[in-house]
Amino acid sequence: MSLHRLRTQHDDLAFPAERVLEAVEREVQASGRYAGAAAALDGLPASMPGTLLVRALDEARRDRRASVFRWLGLVYPEQPMRRSYLALESGRPRRRANALEWIETTVGHRTFSDLRPVLAEEAPQGPSRGAGEVLRELWDDEDAWIARCALWTSFETDRGAMGEALPGFAPAEPALAMVARRLARRAATPAQVGGDERDEEEMELIEKVFRLQSVDLLSGVESRQLALLASIAREVEVRPDAVFIRRGEPTDALYLVIHGEVSLEAAGEGSISIADGEAFGTWALIDEHPSLVEARAGEPTRVLRITREDFRDLLIDHPELGLDLLRGLASRVRGLAVT
């Protein structure tokens, strides 16, 4: 059970304020570090890993900000502290002003000043630094997903410099070490003119995450959780007229069109076409009811497929993914209510 939950259930528990405030300081510093890194990378050429890296940095900054308030709730009134955090997140000027006033009165001016980097409405930006320097620092980040995205972004940004720096890079994380070795080999190999330089294993993961983030049901899922989903997404190629889903039969997988076209046909209601970047069978991850439509390939088609069985196995090991999925589900339901 987390300390935060213990405090919620037993408000008479006392935690050492000095230790808690030390943890708060670490989270504030980390939040500022991620904000500064994202700002430094703002001018990089567009790329899949670069886009994912900036997104991951923003998510990490927000996570650290939320963590600050969970820590503060251990030594100050927990429920009012949580309400203050929600007020700051709301973006409403009056609610923010009231929350800031309460926080300063509660924690004192000195601690309040230390908290300013995470209390600001916009992410603070530190001293200007070069993108290359920031990327190299992120290779060693404690967040393995950020480090992974940073390695790939460095490779796509400056292959030559990457080849010089990688031999001295020895991460403790086995998966990251494997990525570094693979990129070192590729950096030492002359680029093939007109060739496909996508790595068949790792770049496939990056591309899957990039594509999965467009699925509306997954809109509330953080990029690091999308990477988990990407690890169970399988690439499938089919011929024209192949049937993915039969009307009246249970659907067991989500599909995302990578290339090609899929026709969805409902009884007596005509058909609609699903093209590149669009998903179908989305509800199959959480619903076992028979399908109301038939899905058929209209041409040679390549899709990503995530089965319900693999998804449920993943949830057992990573229950936090379920919470992120609920956010996406809530967003989709709100969208349906509006339309």
Characterization of the model:
It is a single chain. The strands form two sheets. The chain has a four-stranded antiparallel β-sheet with strand order 1-8-3-6. The protein contains 14 helices and eight strands. The chain starts with a helix and ends with a helix. Helix 8 (144-157) runs parallel beside helix 10 (174-187) and helix 9 crosses helix 10 (174-187). It has 339 residues and is an alpha+beta fold. It is 55% helix and 11% strand. It has helices at residues 3-9, 17-40, 48-72, 78-90, 93-107, 109-119, 131-138, 144-157, 159-165, 174-187, 202-212, 223-232, 308-317, 320-338; strands spanning 234-238, 243-245, 253-259, 262-266, 271-274, 279-280, 293-297, 301-307. A hairpin with a 4-residue loop joins strand 4 and strand 5. It has three domains: 3-119, no CATH class; 131-189, no CATH class; 207-338, Sandwich (Jelly Rolls).
